[in-house]
């Protein structure tokens, strides 16, 4: 196996895995009663897998069928269990920081404290605090991007990941959490023509004033 294939494989397999989670949510809304019952059974098993490893067989089937990298297995199992708590349709770009920010309208002080705890906990205690956070999101039906969550959790639960990598994940969560809702993202176009035009206009206005 080449170095290139190793670099490409985990993201592709993550996509396969996350798609299988979203199919469970689709199953809940199916007109096929058998499919609905099957989705409910699997989701219930995923929830139970968070508290009892002896009941994790459904999670194992879902996770290992998508072939996670060995160092990411815990992150995939945790993400599957969290999805079992709060199954939903795909919500691209809804990071944990954004989702928690949207909770702040209901008891801002409490949510701030919960989020600070999430940023501070070590890898051993992270699953517990993530379960609490996702239950809160579920209570208000606030959407979360599970693909992005998996990417982040895979770093935070990786014992071999550099501390700087983990710090960047936490900083990204914090940035999204504290970003004002009305803040707009200005695209970096790399085009200086607008700046040149503004400077030219400023020079012309100055000359007109002097004349």
TrEMBL record:
Cited CDD domains: Cse2_I-E
Stated name of the protein: CRISPR type I-E/ECOLI-associated protein CasB/Cse2
Residues of the region (Disordered) are 182-211
Return the Polar residues bias intervals. Answer: 202-211
Q: Which organism is it from?
A: Actinoalloteichus fjordicus
Q: Which residues form the signal peptide?
A: none
């Amino acid at each position: 196996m080449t170095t290139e294939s190793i670099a490409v494989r985990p993201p592709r397999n993550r996509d396969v895995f996350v798609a299988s989670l979203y199919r469970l949510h689709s199953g809940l809304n199916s007109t096929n009663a058998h499919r609905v019952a099957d989705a409910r059974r699997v989701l219930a098993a995923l929830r139970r897998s968070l508290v009892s490893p002896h009941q994790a067989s459904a999670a194992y089937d879902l996770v290992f069928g998508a072939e996670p990298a060995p160092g990411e297995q815990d992150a995939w199992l945790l993400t599957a269990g969290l999805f079992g708590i709060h199954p939903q349709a795909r919500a691209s770009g809804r990071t944990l920081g954004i989702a928690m920010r949207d909770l702040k309208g209901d008891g801002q002080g409490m949510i701030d404290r919960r989020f600070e705890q999430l940023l501070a906990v070590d890898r051993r205690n992270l699953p517990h605090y993530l379960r609490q956070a996702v239950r809160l999101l579920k209570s208000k039906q606030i959407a979360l991007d599970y693909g992005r969550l998996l990417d982040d959790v895979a770093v935070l639960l990786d014992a071999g990941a550099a501390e700087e990598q983990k710090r960047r994940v936490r900083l990204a969560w914090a940035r999204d959490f504290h970003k004002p809702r009305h803040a707009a993202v200005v695209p970096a176009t790399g085009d200086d023509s607008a700046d040149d035009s503004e400077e030219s206009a400023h020079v012309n206005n100055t000359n007109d004033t002097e004349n």
